[in-house]
Amino acid sequence: MTAHLHRLASGGQIDRSKPIRFSFDDVSYQGYAGDTLASALLANGVRLVGRSFKYHRPRGILTAGPEEPNALVELRAGARREPNTRATTIELHDGLQAWSQNRWPSLRHDIGAINSLLSPLFVAGFYYKTFMWPAAFWEKVYEPAIRHAAGLGRASAEADPDSYEKINAFCDVLVIGGGPAGLAAALTAGRSGARVILCDEDFALGGRLNADIREIDGKPGVTWAEGIADELMALPNVRILTRTSVFGVYDGGTYGALERVSDHLAEPRPHQPRQRLWKIVAKRAVLASGAIERPIVFGGNDRPGVMMAASVRGYVNRFAVTPGREAAIYTGCDDAWTTAFDLARHGVTIAAIIDHRSTVAAPLRAEATRLGIPVHLGADVIDTRGRHGLRAITIRTADGRAPTLRADLLAMSAGWSPNLGLTTHLGHRPRWSETATAFVPDGLPPGISIAGAVSGAFSLAEALRQGTMLGAAAADAAGFAGAAPPVPRADDDKVELSPFWHVAASRAKAFVDFQHDVTSADVALAAREGFRSVELLKRYTTLGMATDQGKTSNINGHAMMAELTGRTMAEIGTTMFRAPVAPVAIGAFAGHHRGRDFRPTRLTAGHAWAEQNGASFVETGAWLRAQWFTRPGEADWLPIVSREVREVRSKVGVCDVSTLGKIDVQGSDAGLFLDRVYINMVSTLPVGKTRYGVMLREDGIVLDDGTAARFAPDHYVVSTTTANAAKVMQHLEHARQVLWPELDVQLVSVTEQWSQYSIAGPQARRLLERLLGDAIDVSNAALPYLGCVEFTWRGVPARLFRVSFSGELAYEIAVPAQHGDAAIRAIMAAGAEFGITPYGTEALGVMRIEKGHVAGNEINGTTTAADLGLGRMMSTKKDYIGRVLAQRPGLVDPERPTLVGLRPVDPLARLRAGAHILARGAAPTTENDEGYVTSVAFSPMLGHWIGLALVKRGPQRIGERMRAYDPVRDGDTEVELVSPVFVDPEGARLHA
Question: Which residue of 38, 191, 599, 647 has the smallest Cβ count within 10 Å?
């Protein structure tokens, strides 16, 4: 384990009594509680932490916050492996494992660095201009190479072992940011009695107060922040969410936030989520997200050891880490001089302060002189040296000299840019402010106000004033007026700056976007080639398209384009930010809705009985249904299913059909409403009768089929397929609420409220007579085919429908779901003397294919009613959804594939669903394709395989022999086109 080479002997906000072991690239190190991975690496003298994306140049830590573009690492191993995590935001915990990315075979010796030598080939937009010749190389050489090079890090291929939560919260005032402005706003609003939520992405409140030596109300800034945090935590109406990033602003005062509940632990505690996604609805919000320090574009500015000045100050004051021993400061603003002074006070040698400005405030010069710091005004850094870390810098002085200075740390700053990403999410584009020398919000989402540096006010005193006033205003707007709050007093700030972006005198590569290796030369090339708007610049060079969304690069790139094209910053503008402004794991968006919880599996009331009787289950839509019932000694599914079919057709069987959609339709206009959604008439259906019906989509394609049963003049029960139950309900509700709101009709989905069993076979009526006794007359005269009736059975309301999907004499009995288990047991008991057998979905599918009934394989989103042989049902006496578009020429073309039956010419041959139908002797080409097989089954009644297919002009070609060609499974079977009804075409069984 290495020593703390760069840790100060005292100071900082770390807990030295709690050492923490961690590793980076399999080397063990030690840090302390309160460290980030970045601060702990710097404390241990680790400067090289990664490689850039395109050129694989050595990269070190640049910042101390979530804007970090360089220090992206891979965390943890195995199922919890997480790539592209910023070392600057990772809270150190015991046993933490991290690895560098985008290098091979090692970080120090990366073969990909050869790309830097090939950089003339990899200029901006190179992918638009290369890989064109020879054409044959694309699939075998170019594309594999590009895919291999693409991406950063490695995602785990194992299932995520952690859980994620989603939660909704409501508040009067949401405060985004826990710096001085945010703390002042939250305290003022909280004292008024308003419900306040304060979100901050750090694990410690205070913002820049943790990094700077400041004074508020006569106290050190850190002490003041701790006191405010303590008071906020004591207020019952205030909720503090640390480790929480607000990532999006949405309509209606809604905000998305991600709380990293357990990311600071090796693994979550039992029953604790790893992350929690918050949906926060706030009456008012105060955005105090601060600002991001701007880097300077000069030669060699990407070398490890070149860092942002304020970040260096943060490492020194918050983490007691000196990132270098000999430092230089390069700036054009007063704030960076403070970094030089803080470093000097902690024993770091300051080689020089290089300031682009010709003059600076006298107090700054005086303090530098007192500390013995050399100062170069009107000077610039033009180059850096060092292979894997900074060793020296070359400057251009005001008099034209170019001396080289020894330095292993260069702290740079070109000023600050407001962190305004959230203000643009609802379409408000930022505007350029000459006063702030930055883009500032120009128009805000409804209900939001901005305080502190995000508004372009970079002084601490102004941040405290704005936070206090806006916190009070937000509480007042939410109905919590209070007395005018006192504004905390703060010491003076050094905020003067002279804007500059790029050192033109540099000859070495000068980087604008550190993560995507976009250089000043790339921006110039984009200007020469006409990609001059900021949007085109972004897409042509990939400026700002990396994981940091251009937080440190956008403004510099846009400023350089403005200079190159002779425009002002106000004229060139800047790009917009999209949600999320901070990375959010897909698992957090999913929450518990993953795996089995993605769509909870529904069980019918008879599920336990089915399990007890040997059922094998299959997912059908959202339900788990019995697929078949295995008896002792049975092993293979096909003989089991064949047995079930034979016994149903020769005796009687029962199948749980509770999963079919059931929609209760009531109202004086119920019949008229159903006429408008079904292709056939429903309003003429007598009470006590059921009718088969088909619904179309607006485009004339079949949506679903089912039945409509009429129990009263104003009361229907509509059935749907299992898979389309929710879709049909949405379709009907849209028709009711949007298309015809004037109709007196109400809809309720009652699928879960009723258990329903199909009793089918020659003995079905005798079984029902034994089961129902005197409760109802089930004779053919009293309850003919397609009849329906409501009655009371054993004190329970029940319904009986005489409908059949199997082609046998069949009934469906429905009882309230709480009686479903008792009902199936009673059915089995009553049917014992008749040889009753339970059957599952496979046997049901076989029997529906034998009868030529269409199902999901045929109602597949491409077929019309005419395609399915149901064209004669389409009424010409009324209008209905889809009627007009169903008559489009393409949908009435006589060449369209139409439903037919198939049987193999060789009775021993097996058919496969999905096989293409070709003419005998025709080559297997797209031009010769005449249809496809939709459903197949082995028919135990016929003793061979049968199928349904959609074939061009199918009904006119009955008797023709064709090929069922299946190249995927090496099938090529001669088949005969036959009627789709294979069993009992006269319907004698059905009407028995």
Answer: 599
Residues 321, 36: Cα–Cα separation, whole Å: 11
The tokens for 212 are 């700077």
Q: Which positions ≥6 away from 270 have C-beta within 8 Å?
A: none
Quote the CA–CA distance of 377 and 802 in Å, as a whole number: 97
- Cβ proximity of 722 and 659 under 8 Å: yes
* pTM for the model: 0.81
Residues in the chain: 992
- Starting at the edge strand found earlier in the chain, the sheet holding 715-720 runs 690-696, 702-712, 715-720, 661-666, 746-749
Please state the φ and ψ torsions of residue 366, each to the nearest 5 degrees.
Answer: -65, -45
Q: Does the pLDDT at position 5 exceed 90?
A: no
Mean pLDDT of the chain: 94
**Rounded CA separation 412/514 (Å):** 14
- The residue that leads in pLDDT, 962 or 131, is 962
CB atoms within 10 A of CB 370: 10
Are 453 and 416 spatial neighbours (Cβ–Cβ below 8 Å)? yes
Phi-psi region of 501 (alpha: psi -120 to 50; beta: other; left: phi over 0): alpha
The two three-digit tokens of residue 605, written as one number:
């009331």
Of 50, 52, 53, 26, the C-alpha closest to 38 is 50
pLDDT of residue 1: 47
Helix (H, G, I), strand (E, B) or coil at 770: helix
Residue 647's SS3 state is helix
Residue 126 scores a pLDDT above 80:
no
- CA separation for the pair 836, 538 (Å, rounded): 71
- What one-character DSSP code corresponds to residue 631? P
Contact 448, 289 (CB under 8 A): no
Q: Are strands 653-656 and 615-620 parallel, antiparallel or unpaired?
A: unpaired
Q: Centre a 10 Å sphere on the Cβ of residue 354 and count the other Cβ atoms it contains.
A: 26
Phi, psi of 331 (to 5 degrees): -160, 175
**CA-based nearest residue to 302, from 395, 389, 379, 380:** 389
Please give the sequence-ordered ranges of beta strands (E in DSSP) within 803-907, or none if there are none: 810-816, 837-838, 897-904
**CA separation for the pair 911, 925 (Å, rounded):** 20
The H or E element that residue 190 is part of is helix 180-191
As a whole number of angstroms, the distance between CA 248 and CA 582 comes to 9
Helix axis angle for 554-565 and 534-541, nearest 10°, is 120
Instruction: Compute the average pLDDT of residues 278-300.
Output: 97
Across 543-614, the runs of DSSP E, i.e. the strands, are 602-603
The H-or-E segment that residue 719 falls in is strand 715-720
Tell me the DSSP string of 894-927.
TTSEEEEEEEESSTTPPP-TTPEEEETT--SSGG
Would you call 737 helix, strand, or coil by DSSP? helix
897-904 and 971-978 as β-strands: parallel, antiparallel, unpaired?
antiparallel
Per the DSSP assignment, residues forming a β-bridge with 864 are none
Beta bridge partners of 291: 418
Are 240 and 198 in contact, with CB atoms under 8 Å apart?
A: yes
Element (H, E) at 216: strand 215-216
Question: Which of 695, 739, 746, 740 has its CA nearest to residue 721?
Answer: 695
Token digits for 885?
A: 């578009």
Buried b / exposed e across 180-210, counting CB within 10 Å, b at 16+? bbbbbbbbbbbbbbbbbbbbbbbebbbbbbb
What does residue 379 show for φ and ψ, rounded to 5 degrees? -115, 165
Report the C-alpha dihedral over residues 307, 313, 315, 319, rounded to 10 degrees.
180
Intra-chain end-to-end CA distance of the chain, in Å: 88
For the record, the structure tokens of 968 come out as 């995927």
How far is residue 414's CA from residue 181's CA, in Å, rounded to a whole number? 23
- Going by pLDDT thresholds of 50, 70 and 90, the confidence category of residue 144 is confident
DSSP 874: S
Q: Are 200 and 158 in contact (CB under 8 A)?
A: no
Q: Of 313, 315, 249, 410, nearest to 39 (Cα)? A: 315
